[in-house]
Amino acid sequence: MKEYTKWCLVLCVLGSANCYVSTMPNNYDTIVVGLGSAGVTAASTLANAGRRVLALEAQDRIGGRVMTVPFGDGVVEVGAEWIHGTEGSRVYQTAIQNNVSVLPQDLSFQVYMSDGSLGNKELVNELIEFCLQTVEKPPEKPEPLGKFITRQLMKYINDKHPELLNEKDFIAEFLEMMNLLINNYEASNDWNDVSVQTNYEELAGHQHTSWHRHGYKTFFEILLNTYNNGTGLPTLDIELNKEVTLIKWPKNTTGKVQVVCKDGDVYTASNVIVTVSLGVLKERHSHLFLPSLPQEKITIIEKMSIGVMDKVILNFEKQWLPNGSFFGFIWKGEDKKKLSNDDYWTTRIFGVSTPMGSKTALTFWTSGDVGKMVETLPEDVVKRKVMELLRKFMGKNMTIPEPTDMIRSTWFSNPFTRGSYTHDNLLMHEYPNARAILGEPLVDDSGAPKVLFAGEATDLTHFSTVHGASDSGFREAMRLLPSSKV
Ligand SMILES: Cc1cc2nc3c(=O)[nH]c(=O)nc-3n(C[C@H](O)[C@H](O)[C@H](O)COP(=O)(O)OP(=O)(O)OC[C@H]3O[C@@H](n4cnc5c(N)ncnc54)[C@H](O)[C@@H]3O)c2cc1C
Ligand SMILES: *[C@@H]1O[C@H](CO)[C@@H](O)[C@H](O)[C@H]1NC(C)=O
Ligand SMILES: *[C@@H]1O[C@H](CO)[C@@H](O)[C@H](O)[C@H]1NC(C)=O
Ligand SMILES: *[C@@H]1O[C@H](CO)[C@@H](O)[C@H](O)[C@H]1NC(C)=O
Ligand SMILES: *[C@@H]1O[C@H](CO)[C@@H](O)[C@H](O)[C@H]1NC(C)=O
Ligand SMILES: *[C@@H]1O[C@H](CO)[C@@H](O)[C@H](O)[C@H]1NC(C)=O
């Protein structure tokens, strides 16, 4: 606790009724709203350069869409799971420079069919590989991702596996599974809602590096100097459970920025960095900023998409599957037809994986509208139905035990995320500079940046990732620092 907080308490005790608000310190350089990857990077970069920073986080924890929880015999990741690519990744560098081992995870599929038989693993992995590679060479004209992949895959099958052309059912069900796999990558509801053309760039290096038993949260502990009993950063104050409800900024004038919290506290600073998700901006922008945002930014907030990707994670008494493996599920048309409408959602879970951080846990992957719906179902229904699914696909030669515990993500219901991450939708061709506009600062009359924007959605090429979010936080911190200070 910092000096002035103590002073405030003393003053309050002495009896002045509204002293709490009026004695709030006004001496911060920057207020950072939100402590996810972008906010923690921005706050720690500024604090390391000697700036006085206040970070306000609405939830009771640091991390945002990174959420490591103790579960099973270790930890599981309810949000981000992997470091996607290593070269030039601030996240990977942070781990390596601090001697925290991170491990690559092999995500090739073991394939199970809905009648309990083993699928053709080599073939399915080859087809998946083809689909993922073909999108790296998009067509000249904009097109929905699914349409493009389907067309390319049919050509490939024609050339390389003509014998499959008779297996229309298999092709249809493989495409359905591929759709789900893409939806999990993109947090989309359907692969035809995603544009095949995108500015997204993969970082080189292994695409699925795991923090395993350390947990992704270690990234934040290192940045904030709380790892290994570190004592934090001297010029950074952190307030959890502090929901920001209003940001007043000087438009056509100069002066400080005022940040109002739900509990009535008001803080001022020279400037503020807002890192809330696109989902939160969509829901709140009209009453979060005073004066309101410029129309250009509002249009972008409305046109861009943030989708849903969710996990259901079970724990078992002991390990019964190898850790760090992926099991893909492919339905047979006739099995799907037998399902009741109520069970349709279980066909939108494309597989299960065993996380690297806990040997006894198992993760089911869902996305889109089904993901949203699963967030609202009763716990016991979700648990029972995913177990039925698991036994249908993997129970033929194994006795699958009952789970002891379940945890599921609620990234859409969570008022402080309202979605999982952004993707480029079919409107991106009309708004090619959308992410840059979203990230533009609001300036005062003298041209000084007053409200700055960071977060996954504002990164031009690495959006939807932890490293992209971190880069965006660094970008905005640098906007406020002479480069020699870092
Ligand atoms: C299920 C899932 C899996 C993912 N998997 C991966 C992966 O494997 N690899 C990868 O690189 N990325 C992955 N991602 C994406 C990655 O997690 C995000 O891109 C990244 O964490 C976003 O960071 P951010 O700082 O932009 O936003 P956030 O993490 O959302 O941070 C914003 C913060 O602002 C806070 N906030 C919101 N409103 C307010 C308010 N009014 N007042 C104060 N605070 C507020 C929020 O509580 C939050 O802490 C995944 C995401 C999800 C949901
Ligand atoms: C990491 O390990 C190396 C070699 O053992 C050591 O020199 C270095 O100080 C360590 N770094 C940190 C941050 O612990
Ligand atoms: C089950 O075991 C039989 C006999 O060992 C084997 O042929 C079959 O592929 C196995 N099925 C699965 C789903 O593992
Ligand atoms: C951190 O502090 C705890 C409690 O004092 C101690 O048990 C632990 O060994 C310390 N860890 C490190 C890495 O210093
Ligand atoms: C603020 O400035 C803009 C552009 O400089 C101008 O168009 C607008 O009328 C001004 N608004 C007010 C309230 O002064
Ligand atoms: C399981 O975890 C261990 C480390 O705990 C690792 O060496 C091994 O490769 C993992 N297995 C798989 C299949 O990833």
From TrEMBL:
Gene3D superfamilies: 3.90.660.10, FAD/NAD(P)-binding domain. Pfam families: Amino_oxidase (PF01593). Keywords: Signal. InterPro entries: Amino_oxidase (IPR002937), FAD/NAD-bd_sf (IPR036188), Flavin_monoamine_oxidase (IPR050281). Residues 1-23 form the signal peptide. It comes from the Eukaryota. GO terms for molecular function: polyamine oxidase activity. Residues 38-481 form the Amine oxidase domain. PANTHER family: AMINE OXIDASE DOMAIN-CONTAINING PROTEIN-RELATED (PTHR10742:SF398), FLAVIN MONOAMINE OXIDASE (PTHR10742). This is Spermine oxidase-like isoform X1. The gene is LOC113396842.
